[in-house]
Amino acid sequence: MSDIVADLLRLSEDPNADARSRRRQTMDRLVQALLAMADSEFGPEDAQSRQSILHLTTIIRDMTERIAEADDATFSAIVREAAMLIRSLERRRADAARFTVH
């Protein structure tokens, strides 16, 4: 999943796209990454965590255009926060896996 963080921080694969398009692509990737995490990483016992991620995903999806139009500092801060969230979820999953009996 850390590849997603690197991808978010790299912004866009398309160097010819304008800044707004790259930012939209970044937010779309963030939404996709969070949805994938919510679908695959949380079991029935983590329903509240999954629901929180889905709620956040809905907010980001609804605000994508406004985020894409934000100033550079604001957009960078949003991407950094998203990267920290994903890393935190990855650590939580890794910690939980250590204590799970297979």
- The SSE string, one letter per element, is HHHH
Structural class: mainly alpha
**Overall number of strands:** 0
Please give the alpha-carbon distance between the first and last residues. 22 Å
**Largest beta-sheet details:** none
Percent strand: under 5%
The domain count comes to: 1
Q: What is the 3D shape?
A: elongated
DSSP helix fraction: over 70%
Average pLDDT confidence is 78
Q: What Rg is obtained from the alpha carbons, in whole angstroms?
A: 15 Å
Low-confidence stretches: none
Continuous helix count? 4
Question: Mind explaining what this structure looks like?
Answer:
The two termini are 22 Å apart. The chain has one domain. The protein has four helices and no strands. With 102 residues, the protein is mostly helical. The longest helix has 27 residues.
Keywords:
102 residues; mainly alpha; 4 helices
Briefly, what is this?
With about 100 residues, this protein is mostly helical.
SSE blueprint and pairings:
Layout: H1 2-10, H2 19-40, H3 47-68, H4 72-98
Helix pairs in contact: 1-2, 1-4, 2-3, 2-4
